[in-house]
Amino acid sequence: MKDIDKMGIKEVSVAELSGVKIGHAQDYDAMTGVTAFVFEGRAVAGIDISGGGPASRETPLLNPKMACQDINAVILSGGSAFGLEAGCGAAKYLEEQGIGFDTGYAKVPLVCQSCIYDLSIGKSDVRPDIAMGYEACQNAVAGNDLCGSIGAGTGATVGKLTTMARSQKSGFGICTYKLGELIVTAAVTVNALGDIFDYDSGQQLAGMTTEDRRAFAGIEEGMYAGAIAGFSGGDENPQQGKNTTIGIIITNAGLSKGDMNKVASMTRNAYSRCILPVGTTADGDSIYAVSVGKVTADINTVGTLAARTMGEAIKRAVTTDRMDDNEYLAKCIEL
């Protein structure tokens, strides 16, 4: 890992970033959960969607052509498209707090959401719902730096070219870096088809294992070996099409909606450096980028720092609070 101190970057708690509260709710029996990012004021957002199968809510609002400038919350969850119900729970909570776009007749909370596919671990018929989305918002506090099998990362897994028996447990990761007055937080749920690597060294951290689970097998090589057959997600490849890495960048840089869409797209460099393969038709990879402050900062510097911060968050998602292997395999559902 590069010495970030020599670059003038310091790691700090997300508590130093005002304007956002983070909360988690989860069901460890079902192995699914919700993470809520609740914004307390200005929240100008953009998004980058590079995967082929995103499950999402209200993401068109983030297009610079749309009139909406601020959003009220971002929800990351499990449950695949079923999990979008959690966004309604967040909207219910925000409405009760008097938060939302004022239409004159009611305040309508603007809640964006992305979901991972975690139905192959725990219980496939239990998904995040209105109650869990509401609870995650209730639990939202400033300075929440928790990582691991929590919230939207509860059922996250990686390395799924073949079967769950050769995959590994992942989770939720968060990191905050500060450069002068500029603060960038990255948070991510890593639920990738691919293998996971260190942002700087390239060392493999997690991914598909050999059948005896004693070593990494290498998904890229496996894909090339099956190139003729392809990977359409059929019976021989039951886990393909059931992945997604969803993340968010939050910064105090005072940037526009168009700028935040660019920051989100620059942050994708972290996905490219840390996940292989990435952005496939079997993934729904998405990155939100939200400005909650007014610090003057160059957009290219923000985007570059965002990618580095996201790279560290991805590392923490796969290295913190990893489940015992036997416990993990017992939770996996094989077809």
Automatic annotation (TrEMBL):
One protein family per Pfam = Peptidase_S58
Checking CDD domains in the record gives: nylC_like
Q: Which InterPro entries match?
A: ArgJ-like_dom_sf, Peptidase_S58_DmpA
Q: Which domain of life is it from?
A: Bacteria
Family annotation (Gene3D superfamilies): L-amino peptidase D-ALA esterase/amidase
| Family from the record | Belongs to the peptidase S58 family.
PANTHER family in the record, alphabetically?
BLR5678 PROTEIN, D-AMINOPEPTIDASE
Under what name is this protein listed?
P1 family peptidase
Identify the species of origin: Gallibacter intestinalis
